[in-house]
Design brief:
There is one protein chain. By secondary structure, this protein is an alpha+beta fold. The protein has two domains: 173 residues, 2-Layer Sandwich (Gyrase A, domain 2); 123 residues, Elongation Factor Tu (Ef-tu), domain 3. The protein has a six-stranded antiparallel β-barrel. Strands 1-7-10-9-8 form a five-stranded antiparallel β-sheet. The protein has a five-stranded antiparallel β-sheet with strand order 3-4-5-2-6, with helices on one face.
């Protein structure tokens, strides 16, 4: 990765679900793959909302703005159906879920702007998923794009934008891909269990917490060795889109992988996060959309997998 990301960009493709009430953390704890009961005010959580079959219906970056207010950041295209599904489970819990996308502004920070925007808060030196507050602004440390630090900046609507040069949304999207962490969008709803996107290795699954929808499937995939797909980084000379199927060169009958997130590369071609069969990755010779389609080059994710830690 020679091109270096640097600057700030509004994240208009993301939306915000606000969860308010005395039971906000307890409610989310029972619905998502991560621990929200023990979520502190200086940290965030990556988490998935799964079906009863363990398939990811949504993914979030979640954090507390106060003891009784939690924000869930997700792709805007899945927000309405996700809000509806989650709300169905509230029942008697003291928790209210609303679409708060218009109440907040979200920016992505990359490179030196992470330090500039955080002023005296050493966000760039903190661990991934650390959260720092600057008055009403929340800054969350994200996984880097290569060796470039990244952060999520969340503030009430009307707050002046963070200081820094302008970064294009296209380049930010490329940085998301290079981080190796895919977020669920409409084309891949219910396509993967969390481990197929390596969520257990990047802080997105807590195996010690209580029950949540799909927990048995997620746990069985982890501890019984039934998981046969992992997330990898891919590159192609042609355009890649979320939901595109990947085939091995010797089998045109069924796909061996799926593009989970993709973006044009400033270095040329397209990069993507691909969830693919481990055996197919090891064998190589993978192609886009058919066994004779454009060639793909796959590399391992840019972080160690849980089994390797």
């Amino acid at each position: 990765m020679n091109y270096q990301l640097h600057g700030t960009t509004p994240l208009t493709h993301l939306g915000v679900i606000r969860v308010e009430g005395d039971d906000a953390a307890k409610f989310l704890h029972g619905q998502l793959t991560n621990d929200f009961v023990l979520l502190g005010l200086n940290e965030a959580r990556l988490a998935a909302f799964c079906s009863s079959k363990g398939r990811m219906q949504a993914s979030f970056i979640g954090f507390k703005r106060s003891a009784s207010e939690i924000l869930l950041i997700c792709k805007r295209d899945i927000l309405p159906p996700t809000l509806k599904r989650l709300s169905m489970f509230v029942m008697r819990a003291k928790a209210k879920l609303t679409d708060a996308s218009d109440d907040f502004v979200l920016y992505g920070l990359a490179g030196e702007t992470v330090t500039i925007a955080s002023k005296n808060i050493a966000v760039s030196a903190g661990p991934v998923w650390a959260k720092a507050d600057l008055d009403s602004i929340n800054i969350i440390t994200l996984y880097p794009a290569g060796d470039t630090p990244r952060a999520l900046w969340v503030a009430p609507a009307g707050t002046p934008a963070p200081v820094g040069p302008s970064l294009s949304e296209q380049d930010w999207a490329w940085g998301e891909v290079k981080s190796g962490i895919a977020m669920i969008s409409t084309p891949i709803v219910e396509a993967f269990v969390p481990q197929m996107l390596n969520y257990e290795s990047v802080g997105g699954v807590n195996f010690k917490k209580g029950c949540y929808p799909g927990q048995e499937v997620v746990a069985r995939s982890q501890f019984r060795g039934t998981l046969k797909r992992r997330a990898y980084l891919a590159h192609a000379d042609v355009a890649l889109q979320t939901g595109d199927e990947i085939f091995a060169s010797d089998d045109d009958t069924q796909p061996v992988g799926t593009v989970a997130q993709a973006a044009a590369s400033p270095e040329g071609g397209f990069d993507a996060i691909v969830s693919a069969q481990v055996a197919a990755f090891e064998a190589g010779r993978l192609h886009l959309k058919s066994a004779s389609g454009p060639a793909l080059t796959l590399t391992a994710a840019p972080y160690p997998l849980l089994a390797d830690i």
